[in-house]
Amino acid sequence: MDCVKIEGRAYVAGSLKRVKIGGSCKTIQFSDKYLILPGMVDIHVHFRDWGLAYKETLAGGSMSALAGGVVAVGDMPNTKPHIKTAELYAKRLREGAELPIVYRLHMGLPEDLTQLEIAKPHTLKIYPEDIAAYGWGHVKRALEKCAELGCTAIFHCEDPAFFKNGVRPPEAELACVEKLRRLKSETGSSIHITHVTLPQTAEVSRGWATVDVTPHHLYLDGENCREGGLCRVNPPLRTPEVRKKLLAALVSGLVDIYATDHAPHTIEEKTSENPPPGICSLEIALSLLLTLWRRGVLSLGDVVRLYSKRPARFLGLDMGLDMFTIVKLEEWEVRGVDFLGKCKFTPLERRRVFGRVVATAVGGKIYFRDGANFDVRNLQP
Fold first, then answer.
1. What is the pLDDT of residues 223-255, one digit of tens each?
2. Distance between CA atoms of 153 and 189, rounded to whole angstroms?
3. Which domains are seen in the chain, by residue range?
4. Environment class of residue 68 by beta-carbon count within 10 Å: exposed (0-12), middle (13-18) or buried (19+)?
5. What is the pLDDT of residues 19-35, one digit of tens each?
6. How far apart are CA 369 and CA 66, in angstroms?
7. What's the pTM value of the predicted model, to 2 decimals?
8. From CA 23, how far away is CA 37, in angstroms rounded?
9. Which residue numbers are catalytic?
10. What is the average pLDDT across 349-359?
11. Which residues contact 272 (CB under 8 A, 6 or more apart)?
């Protein structure tokens, strides 16, 4: 296939200033209306597949990633079956190695902790359901094992003892954070708290844990998102005041990583009487972040740090110069029907955002967005 030569006045950010792509290639001439960024890295996605393939597949999730300028992901283990054994962990990694993006996997918390010794995962994901099933004592032993193995424990940090009649109050998050702070001092393990919803969590975690925030907890709240099941997520959306303070925490540097918690379901499930939690945002997350840049809320360096450099370091990735995304600097309207994955709806429907991903390069290939497909060409270094 033809290779690609990038020329012109595209605005290049970060280490990509050293990119030199030449040879006998097809030449793309850019004006100053384009931005070339290091590839984005999303540490929190749900690519489903296996027993949940009707919701999404590894292949479909990869297409969503490329469409969003994402070159690498960290996939969650709550598949069907839940990835809690070394055998399932290895099987999933083999399947992920066939994808066009870089695939990493967080292992689920096993009841038999010797499974961790066999699998030797880079990261371990712990849910409130795990705490309810195994107790905090088992969690502590898992953290001790993680400290031995050098893995990082990723917490969906809500203490299930505070759940009542389906309500998950802010106190559940705060109580969990306090428990983790004590466990950190007792075990010495590496801890990351994902999809935090409260600015207090970001503040009190400094120095002993890292944290990430999602686009939906930054953009949506209980007042501006009332579309029933489409707005249901765990942890839940908070009040407008809390959301604005969380955004302020992001701006002030208290947040380490930006991650989507991209969680596909069918529209029938999300509009049912008992909708499962989850929002699809992998294809628009970068544009939502660039919208904050356009408004002067974040710098371009913030965008790259939050959604590329720090998450890449978190997953232990060595990002090459052949991993980047090209963004057209224009405003556009979010339409779920245009999503490339199986999930084609969003509570952010019709939202005006800035920065449209037109191409994503991974491992020597550049994927150009062409309607509902990608035109794949080779890169010649």
1. 999 888 999 999 999 999 999 999 999 999 999
2. 8
3. 41-105+195-320 (3.20.20.140)
4. buried
5. 444 444 555 555 568 88
6. 9
7. 0.93
8. 22
9. 261
10. 95
11. 229
